[in-house]
Structures are given as structure tokens and as C-alpha cells.
Amino acid sequence: VLLLGVLLWAPWQALHGAPLTELSGDQDFQLFLQRNLEFTRKIRGDVAALQRVVCDTLQLCKEDDLLLVRQDLDITQVPLEQCHKRTFQAETCFSQIRAGLRVYHGSLATIQALLPEHAGLVETLQLDMANLSFNIQQQMEDLGLATVTYPSENQDPLPTFSTHFHHQVGGFFILANFQRFLETAYRALRHLASL
């Protein structure tokens, strides 16, 4: 399991308010970005694998076919607008990525209940998400950016479903939303790596 503990040199701590472009040439920061781009790619692959399982076992494959049912469900898309605004700020983007990972970490319990025979994959995914969140928090601290530490227990209530079918469709949309979230997070990390 990749637990990245990249430490930046002390002089970078003094650049608390420095524009990120000044940090973009830093080797440790670039190493953090490259490793976590790979990590995010792995997590996306695991989510895609779970989406294939949902498609194969539950016959839930196309979002367009399920939009009417979605209206009855309490499934939200975690926002990442700070990661694709013109006024991109690494601090707020990283904070939103961490907050989203926390939400999806908890909502994967819905998937685990839905696909108990794939609990191992869900647990691996949750561990990878926790590690990615830790990596981002560590990097934010190393850069002198403000961080928010979330409680380890999931404070967000899990979605409730009135029927088994709604549970299945809810699981489908949790994975679909999580995949979109990861794509945006990946693009944000890639953008930082290209500065």
C-alpha cells in the first residue's frame, strides 16, 4: 500500500502564501503529484471494476435508463467545483478532494451491502481512498496550506432505500458519481503536474 510521506524542505514552509507555480518546479511536489496520479488511476480502475460487477450481476449498466428512478433517491454528487474553476486554488481543491473521499468512503458501505461477495475489493478501495486522503493532507501540511482533519468515524448518514431495487440503483449512482469525482480529481492533479 502506497503511503506517501514526501517531506518538503524547510524553506518551502516559508512560502505559505506563494503562488503554486513557484512550487510546481519542486521535485518533491512533482513526485507527490506523479505518485498520486498513479494512485488515483488505480482507484478509478477499482471503481470501474465494481461498475462492471453491478452491470454484470444486477443488469444495471446505463445511466440514461435509470434517470427516472434516480429522482426518487437521495444520492448526491460531491462537488469539486474548486478543482476546475478559472481561479484554481490548490488548497481549496485539495480540501474538496479530501472531503469527497471521506463521503465516498462511507457510502461504499452501500456497495458492500449490495455486493457482499466483492467485499474484499470494496475494502481495498476504501483503504486506497484513506491513503490518498492521507497523502493529500500530508502534502498540504508540507506546503504550509491549511488542512481540515475529519473524524475517522463516518459522520454522514448512509443513504436509505425504500426497496431492494432502489438500493441497487442507488449503488449504481454512487459508483457513477464517484467515478466522475475521481476523473475531476485526476484532471486537477494532472493540471498541477503540468504547471
Automatic annotation (TrEMBL):
User: Which ranges of the sequence are coiled-coil?
Assistant: none
What keywords is this UniProt entry annotated with?
Disulfide bond, Glycoprotein, Growth factor, Secreted, Signal
Leader sequence range is 1-17
InterPro entries, A to Z: 4_helix_cytokine-like_core, GCSF/MGF, IL-6/GCSF/MGF, IL6/GCSF/MGF_CS
Checking Pfam families in the record gives: GCSF (PF16647)
Write down the superkingdom of origin: Eukaryota
The record ties this protein, via SMART domains, to: IL6
Give the GO terms filed under biological process for this record. immune response; positive regulation of myeloid cell differentiation
Q: Which GO terms describe its molecular function?
A: cytokine activity; granulocyte colony-stimulating factor receptor binding; growth factor activity
GO terms for cellular component: extracellular region
* Cell location: Secreted
The family assignment reads: Belongs to the IL-6 superfamily.
Query: By what name is this protein known?
Result: MGF factor
Organism of derivation: Illadopsis cleaveri (blackcap illadopsis)
Gene label: Mgf
